[in-house]
């Protein structure tokens, strides 16, 4: 679909149009809502599985979304965080080889896949999930 969009402003008796966009394509200007329901499960001694969901997303985008995950220790800034992109529409990521006995936090954002017919920008970041990694078993002897 293509639309013509106008913003109309009424100031007292005067009406004017400060913005008019011709040939606007909603499917080329998508911004998804941030992922939610972040959950973390410890699968092995030093392996963690992060999952999330999209509470609101069009069925047109099923299978054509990508995600970016960022994570850090709580002593690091977000500028120092590690980021990676999941280019397939999978709502999980695995963390391996994290340092023992540290607090970590992670967040996720989503957008239509760059390889799809739909275009858009990254969503806002999700709320963060916080966890502490297991203490190193070698240190317990």
Automatic annotation (TrEMBL):
Protein's GO biological process: immunoglobulin mediated immune response
InterPro entries in UniProt: FN3_dom, FN3_sf, Hempt_rcpt_S_F1_CS, Ig-like_fold
Domain of life: Eukaryota
Topology in membrane: Single-pass type I membrane protein
Entry keyword annotation includes ATP-binding: no
Keyword Glycoprotein among record annotations: yes
MF terms in GO: cytokine receptor activity; interleukin-2 binding
Localization: Membrane
Name recorded for this polypeptide: Interleukin-2 receptor subunit beta
Annotated Fibronectin type-III domain residues: 34-136
Originating species: Chlamydotis macqueenii (Macqueen's bustard)
GO CC term, one of those recorded: external side of plasma membrane
UniProt keyword list: Glycoprotein, Membrane, Receptor, Signal, Transmembrane, Transmembrane helix
Major subcellular site: membrane
């Amino acid at each position: 679909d293509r639309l013509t969009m106008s913003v109309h402003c009424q100031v007292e008796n005067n009406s004017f149009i400060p913005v008019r966009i011709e040939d606007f394509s909603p499917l080329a200007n998508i911004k998804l809502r941030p992922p939610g329901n972040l959950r973390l499960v410890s699968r092995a001694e030093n392996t963690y599985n992060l999952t999330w969901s999209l509470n609101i997303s069009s069925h047109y985008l099923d299978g054509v979304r990508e995600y970016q995950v960022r994570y850090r220790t709580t002593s690091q800034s977000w500028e120092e965080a590690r980021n990676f992109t999941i280019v397939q529409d999978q709502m999980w990521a695995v963390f391996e080889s994290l340092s023992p006995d540290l607090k970590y936090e992670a967040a996720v954002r989503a957008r239509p896949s760059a390889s799809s017919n739909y275009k858009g920008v990254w969503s806002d970041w999700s709320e963060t999930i916080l966890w502490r990694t297991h203490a190193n078993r070698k240190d317990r002897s």
